[in-house]
Amino acid sequence: RAKALGKNRLVRYAPGMAEAAEEEVTLLQDLTAAVRAGQLEVYYQPTIDLADGRTTGYEALLRWQHPQRGLVPPAEFVPLAEASGAILEIGRWVLEQAVGQATVWTAEAGRPIGIAVNLSPRQLADDDVVALVSAVLAASGLPAAQLTLEVTEGVLLRDVDRVAGQLRALRELGVRIAIDDFGTGYASLTYLRRLPADVLKIDRSFVQDLGGDVRSRALVASMIELARNLRLEVVAEGVETSEQHAVLGGLACSHAQGYLFGRPLPAPAHDPAQPAPTGAVPAPREPVPAP
Ligand code: C2E
Ligand code: MG
Ligand code: MG
Ligand code: MG
């Protein structure tokens, strides 16, 4: 649906499309107002070191509390913000929030707490992204090595040389680059060949089937091996069950994220100084998005 605006062209004649497009325009107008009205919020989800169970850092995940619609998931509004360019302003705000929060947590925990921020293709293509990241780090005092920028292979749809240059410049600041949703696209291996990276995040869809499906297990084992050979850190996304946790442990996966360890929640709900939950106690539930 969001794709309709994604390339700045509307498919006008398909039945139902006009209404869908109209609704997106409304949502986009609301989004512009939302930024000013303070309806956007950053939630945080822990990343766990599977060797010792400790929280190594958090991923910043954007939330929109819409006054009428309730919680609008990022899958619905981030593509709109990307298409309209609003993602530049929103993304800067998320980066500032997240880096500031990591500075606070680092002080509280007495050890470095990492922060991962999702960067959209449009943000990465922006001329000012390197200066922006550099300025936000400088203003907060957070060491660059504690910031990871997550990108998807969607960035390959843009000028690859330019994207590679931007990523290299970001890495020269000392920031880490993670490939998000690894394995889901059409060009995962092309990404690894052409663009720099430090972290590989195995997409949730592979992790989900880890319990019973031998093929998924073989694929995840191969991705972990691939990461090892390329000297990349590996993070398994979307771990929900202790069975998946156990299989990942057996495969010597170093890091994981998922509801089993912690849901995305507002910053005050997290305390990195405390040991990470083992998953034995169910984490509090996020509010369910409105239908
Ligand atoms: P992502 O970066 O791959 O984030 C992981 C998504 O998986 C998040 O969805 C998270 O809530 C969800 N998740 C984590 N653990 C589990 C689990 O155990 N089970 C299940 N079923 N889901 C789990 P969310 O927060 O809805 O975000 C969706 C996507 O929206 C993100 O995928 C990211 O691509 C995008 N996004 C979120 N925040 C931002 C942002 O600040 N900027 C940009 N550009 N994109 C963002
Ligand atoms: Mg991500
Ligand atoms: Mg992901
Ligand atoms: Mg994703």
UniProtKB/TrEMBL annotation:
Q: Which residues form the EAL domain?
A: 24-278
Q: Where do the record's region annotations for Disordered lie?
A: 264-291
State the superkingdom.
Bacteria
Biased region (Low complexity) positions are 268-283
**Protein name (database record):** Bifunctional diguanylate cyclase/phosphodiesterase
Q: Which organism is it from?
A: Geodermatophilus arenarius
Please give the first and last residues shown and the length of the full protein.
331 to 621 of 621
